[in-house]
Design a protein that fits this description.
Strand 22 and strand 23 form a beta hairpin. The chain is built from no helices and 26 strands. The strands form 7 sheets. Strands 3, 5, 9, 10, 11 and 14 form a 6-stranded antiparallel beta sheet that branches. A 6-stranded mixed beta sheet has the order 4-16-15-6-13-12, with no helix packed on it. The protein is mainly beta.
Length: 283
């Protein structure tokens, strides 16, 4: 909606006089809306966006251009782009019918050209963007990207923004090592389990993380530590020396969240949170 004002001047031999000022509004015939199919993201994720253009006017709007800033933000004097258009992903619908894809410049920013919206009609653009190394990943981080529409019949640029947030969760992996790799009969063997968390949320007791293993060869006289603290059988873990079956008790394992650090070049690095479980026994 645009507001305009106007005033007339009357001139005559004795001088001039102004009229009153009148004010009016121009109602935009075109409306734009932008949404993400999913409202959260993770590192290296793919995000699907939908842009809808609605023309309520009696005249078709042609040769429109849509510019998507791909979530641009400023770091110092540099512009960073947390999203990147996925080339070839554009789908273009006019009144629900799929059309040949318009011209798309990946950018950044991404530019879509040659869009036409029929009188009383609707255009829908569906495309994907990938999360780049410039996307913040810490808890409660967000990406806001804005689409701007310009072109014939659009009196002022129209914008629509969408904000997505990080998926706040733990993301765990586990690795196992043995020492020594060659052990004599009745010798001592140590298994070390390293549990890493690349997520932005700690794995807490309520997440009920459990490690299970069946030791073969079976161990006897085992000693268990977690992050350097000695554990107690049937309190922190269970073990069956007859079958070699080992399991931690639910809620005993916790793993801190990862730490995210933005580098001078704008990219983010991830330092996983880690916890270590060590089981030692005789074979």
């Amino acid at each position: 909606m645009a507001t305009f004002t106007n005033r007339a001047t009357l001139s005559y031999s004795g001088g001039s006089v102004d009229s009153n000022t009148v004010t009016g509004e121009i109602l935009e015939a075109l409306a734009v809306q932008k949404n993400a199919v999913m409202d959260d993201y993770t590192a290296m994720d793919d995000v699907t966006y939908v842009i809808v253009l609605r023309n309520t006017g009696a005249v078709a709007l042609t040769n429109l251009t849509i510019t998507d800033d791909l979530g641009a933000y400023t770091q110092g004097t540099e512009t960073r782009y947390p999203l990147a258009y996925t080339v070839g992903s554009m789908n273009y619908y006019v009144n629900g019918a799929l059309q040949p894809a318009p011209a798309v410049t990946a950018g950044p920013p991404m530019v879509i050209q040659g869009i036409s919206v029929p009188a009383g009609g609707t255009v829908m653009l569906i495309y994907e963007a990938s999360v780049t190394r410039y996307a913040p990943l810490g808890a409660a981080a967000t990406i806001t990207n804005t689409a701007t529409v310009t072109g014939n019949g659009v009196t002022a640029p129209l914008t629509a923004a969408e904000t997505i947030s990080t998926e706040d969760r733990a993301d765990l992996t586990i690795s196992k090592s043995v020492c020594p790799a060659i052990v004599t009969e009745n010798g001592q063997l140590t298994y070390t389990f390293v549990i890493e968390n690349t997520g932005n949320t700690p794995a807490a007791a309520g997440d009920n993380v459990v490690v299970t293993d069946t030791f073969d060869p079976r161990l006897t006289g085992i000693n268990v530590t977690f992050n350097g603290t000695t554990w107690t059988e049937n309190v922190n873990y269970t073990y069956n020396p007859t079958t070699g079956e080992f399991a931690t008790v639910a809620g005993q394992i916790t793993v801190p969240a990862a730490v995210y650090t933005q580098q001078a070049d704008g990219t983010w690095t991830v330092t996983p949170g880690a916890s270590t479980l060590v089981v030692t026994g005789q074979v």
